């Protein structure tokens, strides 16, 4: 039996176990299991591999995408640049880290991007924001971080006026605001200045249409949730785990 899984804490609302279990059944993949490994402390990470010698790879979620990196034997260039790892594979007994959020976000973004989407606002400055930043840098899209906390290289929500919204047609929500069960909140931006030229991308996938996206839609903006990104990052993890070369 080949074992795969997810580490994080807590893991009560995990998408991944359901996704992989259904995938195995739908695609007739036998001899594989995907389990949840809630770790109260990242110090338990090495023990997980010692106890489960059939473990091939794991996904990593909040709050360990950054904290897991010191436990890896090697890491992809994307992990080193973003400082975030969401996929680990055991190769010849050694653990290598990858970041498949980047691939998920990039695929969905590029599929929907229009030539006028040249400047972006990234709402939030956490782990997912770093994956977004990497993709925007790679594709030559200029951006500003919007944070609750003033600091170098970022603006705050109170700096967002009509001109700022007019000149930033791509707005990406990487904050958890609006995520189930707190679906009645949204990032504090002046939605009244949104237009049909704007593209609002919310990394949240539950609910499918957050208040942030509903407000964008009501102004005719193009909207995208995090659902497709989530599926692509899961499939990319599966590809990495099942590629025989040292990926
Ligand atoms: P995180 O590291 O906790 O960062 C979230 C950032 O949002 C924080 O750094 C903070 O930035 C801002 N924030 C947090 N609470 C806030 C609040 N109450 N009001 C305003 N801003 C707040 O989380 P993450 O790992 O980056 O994940 C963020 C979201 O992306 C989650 O909803 C997660 O589910 C989603 N996600 C989706 C996918 C996907 O595949 N669709 C992949 C990864 C993540 P400031 O302190 O600078 O304001």
Describe this structure in words.
With 247 residues, the chain is an alpha/beta fold. The protein has helices at residues 16-26, 45-51, 77-82, 100-112, 127-138, 162-166, 211-218, 227-241; strands spanning 2-8, 32-38, 55-60, 74-75, 87-91, 94-98, 119-123, 142-147, 154-156, 170-173, 199-202, 222-224. 31% of the residues lie in helices and 23% in strands. Helix 1 (16-26) links the parallel strand 1 (2-8) and strand 2 (32-38). The two termini are 22 Å apart. Bound molecules: NADP nicotinamide-adenine-dinucleotide phosphate (NAP). NADP nicotinamide-adenine-dinucleotide phosphate binds next to helix 4, helix 5 and helix 8.
Brief descriptors of the model:
247 residues; elongated; 2 domains; 12 strands; Rossmann fold; binds NADP nicotinamide-adenine-dinucleotide phosphate; 8 helices; six-stranded parallel beta sheet; alpha/beta; six-stranded mixed beta sheet
Describe the structure in brief.
The protein is of the alpha/beta class and 247 residues long. It has helices spanning 16-26, 45-51, 77-82, 100-112, 127-138, 162-166, 211-218, 227-241; strands at residues 2-8, 32-38, 55-60, 74-75, 87-91, 94-98, 119-123, 142-147, 154-156, 170-173, 199-202, 222-224.
């Amino acid at each position: 039996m080949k074992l795969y899984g997810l580490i994080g804490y807590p893991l009560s609302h995990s998408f991944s176990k359901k996704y992989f279990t259904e995938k195995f059944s739908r695609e007739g993949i036998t001899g594989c299991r995907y389990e949840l490994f809630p770790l109260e402390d990242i110090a338990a990470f090495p023990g997980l591999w010692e106890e489960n010698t059939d473990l091939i790879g794991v996904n990593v979620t909040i709050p360990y995408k950054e904290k897991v990196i010191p436990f890896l034997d090697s890491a992809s260039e994307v992990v080193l640049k973003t400082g975030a790892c969401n996929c680990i594979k055991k190769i010849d007994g050694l653990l290598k880290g990858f970041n498949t959020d980047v691939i998920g976000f990039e695929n969905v973004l590029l599929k929907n991007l229009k030539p006028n989407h040249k400047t972006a606002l990234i709402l939030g400055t956490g782990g997912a924001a770093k994956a977004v930043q990497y993709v925007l840098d790679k594709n030559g899209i200029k951006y500003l971080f919007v944070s609750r906390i003033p600091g170098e290289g970022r603006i705050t929500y109170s700096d967002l006026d009509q001109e700022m919204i007019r000149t930033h047609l791509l707005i990406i929500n990487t904050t958890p605001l609006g995520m189930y069960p707190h679906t009645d909140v949204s990032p504090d931006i002046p939605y009244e200045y949104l237009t049909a030229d704007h593209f609002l991308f919310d990394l949240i996938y539950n609910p499918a249409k957050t208040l942030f996206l509903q407000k964008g839609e009501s102004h005719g903006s193009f909207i995208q949730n995090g659902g497709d990104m989530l599926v692509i990052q899961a499939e990319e993890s599966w590809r990495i785990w099942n590629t025989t070369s040292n990926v």
